[in-house]
Amino acid sequence: MKYIVIGLGIFGASIAEKLSGMGNEVIGVDIKMSKVESIKEKITHAISLDATDPEAVKNLPLRDTDVVIVGIGEDKGANIMTAALMKQLHVKRLISRAVDPLQRMVLEAMGVTEIIHPEKETADRWAKRLNLEGVVDSFELDGDYSIIETRIPKEYDGKTVEEIGIKKEFNLIVLTTMKVTNEKSEIGIDKDCTAVQGIARASTKLNKGDIMVLYGHNKDIRSLLEEHKKFKEAN
């Protein structure tokens, strides 16, 4: 995967380093050369430029990048301007930082649907979420075991937990499922809302597009996600 992280403060630098350490190609961008210098040996590339300047941004390989993360924190105006420019340039996937509810509301109004609150969410958690395709959210219990949320794939639609045989095949436990519905925010923006369906049982029926919460060893979780990816690509 290829990432561009704009804004190399504590949060941006941390997530850039973690994603790079997971084997991804990461380009770090900051207007301050000192921040670029401090990280250039830890990620693929580090560039100093003004990400609010349309001409300067043309130097970035946006078309070949899978995810752009706007991690600018201290300058909310620059954050919003950069996010707006990324939307205008139609990047494949845009994730932006927000430091307060008003900034989040502005980003949502611009159509940014993935928003990070670093004061509440760790860079490590987001790095894991981004690095594993299909993960909606994750919580690592220790170095080996995690709890993850993942979308229920097409091949599981209409089947029960017992029928998919996830415990036998992957040694993973389905803890619960979450119903996903689309609702309007206060400013009229579409957003997904989830409702926990209680403790999953063998007879619990799964529906495509909803979320299942899994517990197990990290290598088994990765095996399951890779299997889902292969099925999706083949169909």
From TrEMBL:
Query: What's the short name of a Pfam family annotated to this entry?
Result: TrkA_N
What highest taxon heads this organism's lineage? Bacteria
Q: Which residues form the RCK N-terminal domain?
A: 1-116
InterPro entries attached to this UniProt entry: NAD(P)-bd_dom_sf, RCK_C_sf, RCK_N, Trk_Ktr_HKT_K-transport
Task: List, alphabetically, the Gene3D superfamilies matched.
Answer: NAD(P)-binding Rossmann-like Domain (3.40.50.720), Regulator of K+ conductance, C-terminal domain (3.30.70.1450)
In Gene Ontology terms, what is a biological process of this protein? potassium ion transport
Q: What is this protein called?
A: Trk system potassium uptake protein TrkA
| Organism (species) | Christiangramia flava JLT2011
Per the UniProt record, the lineage of the source organism begins with:
Bacteria, Pseudomonadati, Bacteroidota, Flavobacteriia, Flavobacteriales
